[in-house]
Every structure is written in C-alpha cells, then in structure tokens.
C-alpha cells in the first residue's frame, strides 16, 4: 500500500490521534496560558522594531538560532495572530510531524502484515502512542523553533523514504535546507542521511547527489549566514549551550525527553521502564539481512542527540523532532510482539507507554517539582497580588522576564526585567507602589550582576516601608540544584522613585 493510499485508508486513525493530541494539550494547560521564559525571546524578536533591526542587521545577532522560525512567527503576527493563535499554529505543526510519521508506520506495518492490514490493537496503540507523546504535548505549542523544526525534519524523512522515483526525492532536500535555517542541529541529520544512502542503500548517482545538495544549500542559505556570524563572533554563546558534563547531559536529556520536560528529578524512576522499552524497540528493528530497510534511517537519526549529549548539551526540548521516531519504534515493537504471539509482552509495552505518558502529562498541571521549575510559576496569583495591593500607579521590578511582558500596556503599571526597569524611570514619573518580584532567573549564577541588582533595588526602595509580601510557587528542590528554581520571594514596597538611563531595551508597561 502506498503512502497516500495509507493516509486515505487510515484517516480515522489520524483523526483520532489529532483529537487525542489536541485534547490532551489543551487539558494540560497548553495554548491558552502565560508564556514561558524562552518564548519571551521569540516574542521580543517579532516586535516591529526588533524584527526590523533583525532584518536590517542580519546576520549580526547574539541569538544562537537561525531566524527562519522568527520570520514565520513575525508573518503570523503581521496577519493579526495573537499569542494563543500562534501557539495553535505550533501545535498543528507538531501534530503534522506526528501524523507524517504515523502514516509512515502504518504503511510499513501494512506491508509486513498478513492480509496487508495492521491489526486493530496495533492501530489503537499507534493512536495512543502518537497522540500522547509527553514531550510533544508539553512543547508542541511553543512559540519557538521546536515545532517548526519537527515538522520540517519529518517532512524531509517522508519525502526521502516514500517516493519510488529517485528524482522525486529532491523535495526532501528543500525540507532539510529549511530545517537548517531553523536550527543548526539539522547539520547532524546529514551524516545519517549519507550513511543510509551511500553505505546501507548503496546508492551513488552524481547528477542526483549534486542537485540534491545544491537544493539543500539554497534552503539553508539563511542558516549558513547565521552560522558564519555566530561561530566567528559568538562562540561564547555556542559554548554556553554545551557547558554540561556528559553524565548530567545524558540523565537530563533522558528524563526530559521521555518525561515530557514535566517530571522532576524525584520522579525520574517513572521513565526507567519506558527507556528500556524504547531501547528494546530500537534493537528489535535492526535487520542485518536488509541494510537498506527504511526504519534503519529512523534509527540513524538517533545519533544526532547522542552526539549533542556527549558534547555536553542538556536541553531535551530541542529533541522534539524525535518524538515521532520514538512513537514509531514503540508502535512497531508492540506490533512485532503481537505478531509473534507474545501477547503479555505486548500488553506490558502498552501499559508502560500509556502510564508514562499519562503521568508526565498530568504533571504539567498538578506537578509541584517539574523538570523545568519555572513552568509552574503562578503568574495569575502574582498579578492578583499586585492588583490587590497597588496603591495608584505601580512599578514592578522583576527577575522573571514573563511578568514585564504580560504587564506591557497595562494601565498604571510599568514593569522592567532586571536593570531594564530604568526605562520606566526616564520620564521622572513617580510611582505610588513598588513591587519587587524575585525568583527564577538564569542570571542568579552571576554574583556581580546580582549584587548590582540588589544595589539597584536598595536604591529604588530607600526610605520605603514594606507593606505586604507573598511567597508564590514552591521552594527550590535542593536535590535538583538547578539555576531555574523559583524561590518565591515577592514584595510590595512603598511609594515613588527616580531612575537612571536605560541599559538594555525591553518593553515596559
């Protein structure tokens, strides 16, 4: 059965997966939510002035990501999309990646099944597995590059593996090139492609290969320009992305990937069984008699996160594009056990996969010590506290970037992130209340910066009296020892202040 025919034959499976994925995402608090810290970087980049500066000064940038995803979100913003609407677009891109791979798996299973049709239990497990991938649910709606990158990579995989005519595979080159203009990790997809094509498939055709890589380079042009600038002038930022030890990177990436960036360190035991299932699933698909087997290409893609992990990279959300691969291997492993008569093993695979997914997704809402601690900052409680205690106009000094973003444009509220609060003081305006929000920040590791910040807070609040305070969130998990813990210190302080010129631009309310 061809890929298109499979999509038509199993459209109900895809519809069920879509319904499950979107429902789980919305019920887990995705889409209609406050932004998280990394999303603020995207939202700032697509502001009219910032976007214009990015375009005019390209490729000069301090951002370690190529700008293709920013251009997409900028276009959506210009079309009038709200933050929630852009998250819906990201969610659809994440589902597209899952759906493309699910169709691929159903195609393969149809080819090896008796009667040319996978068993109903396999189809059901496929829906549950792809529809409840924890990392896809937790990060699939992000206003970041991950969902777009996932959709492009899976488009590349399908467009390379599916066509029977060699020249039709050139479409996959365009997808790979655009992926390279979205994130530099696309470069790590090239070695698996070369190994699969030239060593496993033993395909050599210079005319095709030349055309293929010319198309890749054309699509990756924006990424190449960004890479040249960053690796020439911004290597400090690059090194910062690979600053963790191997052991910590391995444990962090495994917990974050299989736990959906939701389970905390104390809950790491939950992912042990699914990691074992995944490893067994990967090994079971190795076929030494058929080296050119398409599923081998999926297995080769797993080398990318392995290399990045060994280099000290510890951001599992960046591997969102591999969640469809995980879903594919687990679904095929279940079907293999079922076809071989190992019903109890098949049931165990289903139970472990489903239980892990449910535990991780449930933790997105109710977890108190998640993998990413600042994902549970109770922003609404904080804003309610400010409204309840503000006496007239209020200035908010925050170590969290989300608060100033949400408060931009609010009446009688002006907020700044760290020293950016000085922008709120340029007019000499007096404020009746001052709120200092101190908690999560990746800047806490800089002793000098924090000393200067505390001095600024002391200057702003000199002669004022603390009227109210509120702990918000949960105390830091000392076992996690992560810099993004929220310590929950929130103060409301007296009236009026004056300030100095702006150091770095950030919109103030």
Helicity level: 55-70%
Number of helices in the DSSP assignment: 23
Integer-rounded radius of gyration: 25 Å
* Strands ordered across the widest β-sheet: 2-1-3-5-4
User: How many separate structural domains?
Assistant: 2
- What's the SSE pattern? HHHHHHHHHHHHHHHHHHHHHEHEEHEE
Written overview of the protein:
By secondary structure, the protein is mainly alpha-helical. It has two domains: 3-373, no CATH class; 377-493, no CATH class. The protein has helices at 3-9, 11-27, 37-45, 48-57, 68-78, 83-112, 120-131, 134-139, 145-161, 170-180, 190-200, 206-219, 221-233, 235-241, 246-258, 272-284, 295-301, 303-310, 323-339, 343-366, 379-389, 402-407, 447-460, and strands spanning 394-398, 413-417, 433-438, 466-469, 489-493. The chain has a five-stranded mixed beta sheet. Helix 6 packs parallel to helix 9 (145-161), helix 13 packs across helix 14 and helix 19 (323-339) packs antiparallel against helix 20. The N and C termini lie far apart (58 Å).
